[in-house]
TrEMBL record:
Signal peptide: 1-20
CDD domains per record: PBP2_TAXI_TRAP_like_2 (cd13570)
Organism expressing this protein natively: Pontivivens insulae
Pfam families: NMT1_3
Protein name: C4-dicarboxylate ABC transporter substrate-binding protein
Record-linked InterPro entries: TRAP_TAXI
Entry superkingdom: Bacteria
Taxonomic lineage from the root: Bacteria, Pseudomonadati, Pseudomonadota, Alphaproteobacteria, Rhodobacterales
Keywords linked to the UniProt accession: Signal
């Protein structure tokens, strides 16, 4: 299959000698990574790799608190943020013009950059509530689904409805929702975030919690109805867990504005993907931030600079019609 133009190959090949002395003339001097609310995995993971890239490439950059995947697609599409992070479900909705932030707008100027990790969907309640399973959740329960427009808020309410749960929907940042759960203002928090979720880890230290898994039947029902995959939350993820917990998950990808220079994006991908141990030190969810997971993107067009990195370093067979501008 056709790959990437000779001009791009040359521009990418020149990237690393150029940034050894600073950065190339067409690179931005600063950048922003759209993450999500504080207390969630997106913020910890995104701020971490933003700081790593800024340090390695000699630029000014960092993570920015946002509403999560839906808003990140909009920010990156318009160029208000150079980079961001999204899950495949919100990415597909954004491309189809059904992103609630800008209904009818096809956000096709946000390109895939690198695979991050799978986002498991999990439910947490205080042990004192007596809620130990999905079927235990009482009608009218106050459930926190994360920031409005986040992956949790987009899909978890639908999943709960699919499983027959009646609830009052609440939104907020993960840290705030964790505090509300502890204070008795919420009955349940439904998380869609890379594990361990910082807010859950913090709750475990302060009080006794139940991390609620799906039954095999519930998992099968959700797999049938939504664009998710089977997932097991490892027993070593939380001190509360005594064995792996059955869940479902959705893949996350870092995204880049499609108009960014190919050599710049190629260099960013090199920083993130070349040393997984360094990424895992930022967040344990990065154990899946590995080159072989390039094929988990079946939704977004690839940024040319990112595509070139995976072709060169992971043997990726990316069709030309999946590369922006080809």
């Amino acid at each position: 299959m056709k790959k990437i133009s000779t001009a791009l190959l040359l521009s990418t090949a020149c990237a690393f000698p150029a940034f050894a002395d600073g950065h190339t003339a067409d690179w931005p001097e600063s950048f922003t990574v759209g993450t999500a609310s504080q207390g969630g995995t997106y913020f910890a993971y995104g701020s971490g790799w933003a700081n790593l890239v800024a340090t390695e490439l000699g630029l000014t950059g960092g993570g920015e608190v946002t509403g999560g995947p839906m808003q990140n697609m909009a920010l990156v599409h318009t160029g208000e943020a150079q980079f961001g992070m999204t899950t495949m479900g919100p990415a597909a909705e954004s491309l189809n013009g059904t992103n609630p932030i800008a209904p009818g707008l096809a956000m096709d100027n946000a390109c895939a950059m690198f695979p991050m990790y799978q986002t498991p969907f999990s439910v947490t309640a205080l042990s004192s509530s007596g809620i130990a399973s999905i079927s235990d959740i009482p009608a009218g329960a106050r459930i926190g689904f994360g920031p409005a427009g986040s992956t949790s808020d987009t899909y978890f309410p639908r999943m709960m409805e699919e499983l027959g749960v009646e609830f009052e929907r609440r939104n907020g940042g993960w840290t705030d929702l964790g505090g509300q759960l502890q204070d008795g203002l919420l009955d349940v928090i439904a998380f869609a975030a890379g594990v361990p979720v910082p807010a859950v880890s913090q709750l475990e230290v302060q009080t006794d919690v139940n991390i609620i898994e799906f039954t095999a039947e519930e998992q099968a029902q959700i797999l049938e109805a939504f664009p998710v995959s089977p997932f097991e939350i490892g027993a070593d993820t939380y001190t509360t867990l005594e064995e792996d917990a059955t869940s479902v998950s959705m893949w996350n990808f870092a995204i880049a504005n499609c108009d960014l220079p190919a050599s710049f994006v190629n260099a960013v991908v090199e920083v993130v993907m070349s040393d997984n141990e360094r990424m895992v030190n930022i967040h344990r969810a990065a154990r899946s931030t590995t080159p072989d997971n390039w094929d988990k993107n079946g939704v977004l067009m690839w940024h040319p600079g990112a595509a070139q990195w995976f072709i060169d370093n992971a043997g990726a067979d990316i069709p030309a019609d999946m590369i922006h501008g080809e």
